[in-house]
Structures are given as C-alpha cells and as structure tokens.
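request received
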Amino acid sequence: MSGPGGRSNDFPAGERPPSTALVVDDAPDIRLLADLVLTMAGFTVRAASSGSEALRMLARDDLPDIVLLDVQMPEVDGWETLTRLRQHPRTADLPVVLCTVKGLPEDTLKGWSLGCDGYLGKPFDIGALVEELEGVLRRDYVERQALRRAKVAELARTVR
Amino acid sequence: MSESGASAPVAGGPRAVEPDLTAMRAAGVGRVAVGSAIAIVGLAGARWWDGSLGLLFLAVGLLWLPWSAFLLAASSTPARRARHWRVVAYGGPLGDVLIVFAAQCLVPWAWGILMLADALAVSLAASLWRPRHAWGLLGLTVGLTVVAQAVVPADGQVAIVLLVVFALAMSGLVVVVGRIASDHRVAAVNSHRFQQKAETILARVADSIVVTDGSGVVLETNPAGAQLAGGTDWPIVGMPCARALGLREGERMLDCSAGCPLLAEGAGEEGSGREVWRLLPDGRRQPLLASVFAVSDEQGGVEVVHSLRDITRLKEADEAKTLFLATASHELKTPVTVIAGYAETILRYPDMPQERRDEAVAAIRRRALELSAIVDRLLLSSKIEGGRVTVDVHAVDVRGLIIERGNAFQDTSARHVVIQVAHEALVAEADPLALRTVVDHLLDNAAKYSDGGPVVLGGRRKGASIEVSVSDIGIGMDDEQAGHCFDKFWQAESTDVRRFGGTGIGLYIVSSMVDAMGGTISVDTAVGQGSTFTVTLPVVTPADPGADPGANAGEAPPPEESGIKDFMRQIGVLSRGPA
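response:
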C-alpha cells in the first residue's frame, strides 16, 4: 500500500486511495479519538472494543489495511491478539501498530518480537499517529520484516 | 570490730555479675592496714608494757588479718560471696576468742609465730585478690619476720629461722598459685559473661544465624535458624547446609559441600547481601537476604557464619510498589491521551462538525475530572501513610448521609443504587467527611466491579454499632483476594488483561479512614457472587446528651466526645488537628 509520500501533517484527504484502519481499544473515548483523527486523515475507520471482538471481525469481515491495537484490554489483551493474528495465515502479514501506555524498552521489545510493525506510545501526538500508520502502510512486506528484525536487535541490546 | 565495711561487697554479691574489685580493694587494704597497726601496737605492748595487755592487742590484730583474708577469699566470686558472707561475718570473731586463749597459753614467743602465720595469711589472701601486689605483700611478711627476730627471746630464734624459710617458700607458692587462680577466675567470669551475652543476642535476633564448617555441615544455629529449617524440634545440626536449609539462588540449588558458594561470590562484604530463596512446605517461595562470612575456629579450620533475613514483607511491598507504578502510569496516561488528543484535534480542525466537537469537549472534561480524582486519591493515600489524616469524631446522622450519597452517586454514575436504610435514626460516632469518603469509595468500587447491575447501600443498627454496607452483584473475590483487598496498591487483577482500571488504593483509603474513626470494616464475598463491604461504627444512642441527629460536618463535637478523641490522639490513631 503505497501512499503519495507527502508530509502527513497536512494529510490532504483524497490524494490517495482511502485505507481502512481497525482501531482496537477498550476505552470508548480513545476509540472515538482515533476514529476522529484517522477519518480526518482520510482513513476509513472501524473499531473494536476488545481483542476478542477484533479477532472475530478479522476472521469474518474484509481485512482492513492496518490495525491500531491497544495492549491492556480485558480477557484477550493486545499481546495475545497480535500473537493469534500472526499465527493465522489470513492475517500473518496484516500490518499492526501497537498503541499503548506501556513504554518501557522491554515492552517495546516484546511488541516487536511478537511481530508488530509499529509501536506508538500513549499519550500520542495525533500527527504522530497518522504519520506512524502511513509510514507502516508505505513499507512493503520485505521492508516491514527488515524493520522488525532491526528493532528487535536494537532493543535487545538496550534491554540487556 | 566493725563489720559494716566488710559486708558491703558481700551483700552486693548476688546482684553484681562482676566482682566489685574496687570496693574489695579498698576494704581489703583498709583491713590489712588496720590489722597490721593493731598487731604492731600489740607487739610494742608486749615488749614494753604489761605482757598480757600487749598479747591482747596482738591477738586482736592477728585475728583481724586472717578474718580480712578469709573475707577476701570467700568473696572472690559472686556465688561465693552470696554463700559465705554469714560465715565470714560471724565465724571470724568466734575464731578470735579461741586464738586469744591459745596465744595466752603458749610459750612467750608464740605471738611471733602467730604473727608470721598471720602475715602469710595476709599475703595469701591479697595475692589471690590482686596478684600484682603479691611481691609487696611478701615483702611485708619478710619485714615482720625481721621485727619478730629482733624481739623474740634467744630460745625461740631457731624456730623463727625455720619459719622464715617456710614463709618464704610458702609466699612464693602463694604468689604463683594466686596469680594463676586469679587469671583463671577473671577469664572464667569474663568468658561466661561474654558467652551469656552472645547467646542472648543470638537468641533474640530475628535473623537466622546458621554456622557450618568448611564443608557445609551445620554446627550450630540460633533459634530463628532452627525455626527456618522447619521448627525448633528439627535437629539440623550435623546435616549438610544444602539439605538443612534448601537455599536456592535463581533456579540453582546452593550446595555448600565444596565450600560455600555465597562466600565465594562475596556475599559477606559490607552491604552486599545476596538474595536467595527457599521453598516453603506450602509451596510458596520465601525470599531471604543472605550474608555470609568466614571465621577461623580453634583448630585453625574455617567456620562459615550465614546470616539469613526473611525479606518476604519487603519483597511484597516492593512488588506492590512496582505494580502500583505500572498501574498508576496506565491510569494517568489514558486520560492524558484523551485530553491531549482531543485538544489537539480541536486546534487542528477548527471546522470540525459541532457534534464531534461536543463529544471531544465532553471527553476532555470527563477525563480531566477523572485525572483530578486519581490525583486526590494518591494525595490522600500519601497523607494516610504519613499519618497526617485528621478525623473529627462526633455524632453523625448516618441515615441522612447514606440517603444523600446514594442519590448523588446514582445521579453522577447513572447506576441504580438501592438504598436500604432503617426508619429509625442512625447516629454514629464518626467524622462526616471521612464517612462520606468511605461511602463514595465503596459505591465507586461496587459499581466498578459489577457490570451494570444495581448497587445496594444499606444502613442499620446492630447492638451497640451502626452498620453501613455496600453490596454489588459483581465478580466477587476468592478468599485470598478478600484477605488482601485492603492492602495498599493491591488489585484483584494485575495483568495486561485486567478488566478494571484503578490504582489499587481505594479500599486502602477506605479501611484507613474507618480505622481512624475507630470503626471496623469487613468484606463478605465469593467468586461470581458479588461482594458486601460492611463498615461498623460505634452507635450514639438517642438518649445520649451528645446525640443530635442533625449534627453534621463543621459542628463542634459535644464535650462528651472529647475524652474519646483525646484517647485516640494518645494512641496515635488521630494526629493532632486544629482544636
């Protein structure tokens, strides 16, 4: 999914084919915030309030272009959701950006090791949110794999 | 002859652990001096005055000296002093009388022999008492002998010479024996005292002390050490350290058979205790802080002293704090995310649809209030921890408070609150503000852990107490959770899948406030069955002059309550607030 590569801070809608994002967060106001920001940036947004709901939607409906996934959620948390997505052939390559208050290097390392394609700390700058998602969408599968390996290697050194 | 001076060190015996050497020295030297003076007066009297008067003086002097000597010897240890003081005090004078008779019956030079014998007794006693002065006292003996030689008639002089030789030999012996005996006695007293002290310290210290030899075989432990190894009756002496204690570091079992691994890794150096753990019979891990050092034993071998401190509570507090930081950062960051995100959105899209803008503003306001409530709770909890919470206990209309708070909560939370309150007046001894905080927190808690169901807020009188209860039909708790739920920072769920937010200090605040008001709190719960928290407060009966059902915050407490408050301040439940 290649975007036009313009400065995302302006994110002029309509200059690229609309991407679909699935926002997964248990806090309703954060879901609404992400919905608002991403809609303004030209995304088509769907939302799920828990990991299990997201997994159901991803198994049943059309796949979105990217998933914005919170970590701390009841029952099926973000780690678990990401692990299951990567296990299933249908979603193994689906771009996933983790969006969480868990900002310690070990958390970030865990995220990249489980196979995320972007890691966004909360509280986030709304520009950074859009930029992160667009950045991930610009990379192809091989680039995303390479970034993941590089991040894991880099963070593993920090955590040691 | 006075005995008051002599009885002082004797009577003091049983209480003093150490012989009072200074007092004994003063008494002994005084007696020897006085005895010698009397003996010399007697000597002069026998030569130049009437013979029988001189002999009487002499006998007095001679009896004084052995009496002093016996006193010194008999009071050389605390036990002896306690046992012999009557013999010392009364036996001496009895001996006096016998010797006076004997002296008068003997040949004229008998007093010379008696004098020498007495001088020997003096040096014997004094040497035992203070070996350092033995040579001086021996000199006194010899001097007295020379004087005796001069005054004794010629027919007694052979006997005198024999006695001098005998006296010299005996004195030498006395000096040697006296020194040895004295050194031994002092050493024995000191080592006994030291051992007693060390044993007391080891028995009282809460740390477990385990001493092993170089190959890890347990030689001795203190009671705490024996306790650690499975109870006081469990004989671990003679067992290998690894088997007796079962210490592990990480997942590695510590094996001391080839030298203590903790010692090799420097766990004994200042402040560098190692954290180890052992498995308790119930399967829990007991964390211990181990410090180890080696001492040489009498044979030149090495003994290893292990000091193990149970740090379970420290670890729990530490883990609770870490967990708190993790949950608190989540609790604080989530509202900040919403506030900052919406504020930025409003700034960036001035022409956002009005409907979305209203949503955003409402979310900002709600999350800002939430943030403020979290900060209030943190501050209150830190105030409680610092003992700076003041409650003002007086008669409070609990019924009115329940109805007011129940309705207020129903309005703000949109949850159904069932208020079950008795019709009679419910007046309890409480602080209205603290009780309000307690009820609000319990309602909040009940709503949080029950999914939309009703919350029941009840109030009733039970005997001499007023009970306020808050029930929900939520997830409930198991026994272990119920046991911990009033702990600071504790939460029923503490992983990333937690369903409920919060910092884990709400119930801690509640129970601290209830404590401060002199009430009690309990919880009745089961998994899936919901929870009922019950606060019990002392009742104020309507007959009480202080009872005023309308009493509420800000009113001065009636004088009857001031006694209770003073008492609570005394026991530290209340900090001293403005009067």
